[in-house]
Amino acid sequence: MKVRVQTDMLDPGAELSEFAQGRNDLGAVVTFTGIVRDDDGTLERMEIEHYPGMTEKAIAAIVDDACERWLLADCLVIHRHGPLRPGEQIMMVATASKHRVAAFEAAEFLMDYLKSRAPFWKKEFARDGATDWVAAKVDDEDALKRWTK
Q: What's the pTM value of the predicted model, to 2 decimals?
């Protein structure tokens, strides 16, 4: 199980290849890569802030929870911070299990958590100079509710 918070670009293909290399005990690997989206064509960049140490610890705790709930064979979460431009990868989740349902559900659980609860702060910078902190969305909160015990 790996959690990385980094400024470096990520290569989802290379990460997947390394993640699944040499594993013949898996029946499923599910990956998701999030990309910085520019909904209205005005976004210059997004800047993501976090508290080193605290962020990794919080994500590791939710990864541990996912591994227990779905009996995962392996899990990878990578999340970037710093300035990110539209079209760049912002994060990646990979889950591995003997069965596809477990891998899919665990990946969705982790993505919902990362979107709404992981301790990141996002600020958008528009081409016209305007800035705005990204607020939590009701849809993201609703998605997370389905996983409460």
A: 0.93
